[in-house]
Design goal:
Length: 222
Amino acid sequence: MATQAIPTPSSATVPDFVPVAPGGGSMLDKSAGLGEPLNVIISARSHPSVRTKAGLTQWAQAIGFSTECLGLHLGTPQTANLGDGAGDVDELGVWRADFHSPLLGTCLESLIGGNHFRAWIQNFNATAGSGGAVFLAASQEEDSTQHHNIVPNGYNLGRDNLVNAALGTHQHPFLPYKFVTTSADLTGLLAPGAEGVNHNISQDGVVKLLTVDRRSTFDFGF
């Protein structure tokens, strides 16, 4: 997969994201003909580092998630079309709850189940008016004996658990960064219900918009 360029917004007038439908995209990713809701968006107004895979991982580790167990991923990557002209694009990766152990905790999540999310970067150039919003598909899954199926109400639960973990200020465990995250609810982007949704699990259609700032740990302003 080619590396995606991450445009940096030049001013506060840059939109948080661009709606995907006008560009032929969908707020459901694709997995075996069905999809998981893209139920969280990290705003393009967020710190530029968070809108890269490496920076997204730092933010995830600060709020209690990390990369997959021993860096291994089983299964076919899911794809998403964010209406930016790139078509169906593979997920950047999967981040799982780490149970306060960024090095091995995701191995436990893979075994007993828990929260996880996938991510894609919306990639508009400056003339299109935006760039760099990150779309997440968050869900709560069963343990390995249930083949990591999604728990009942797992899309709403996964979204809310992720957002609740992120809100406020969190320090990265290994680097001199802290992240400050705020949230707003969006409706009208994702149709509520279970139509087209993987595992036929209904969801409420609410998308959480997160704005994430990264600061030095020596910055005491809030």
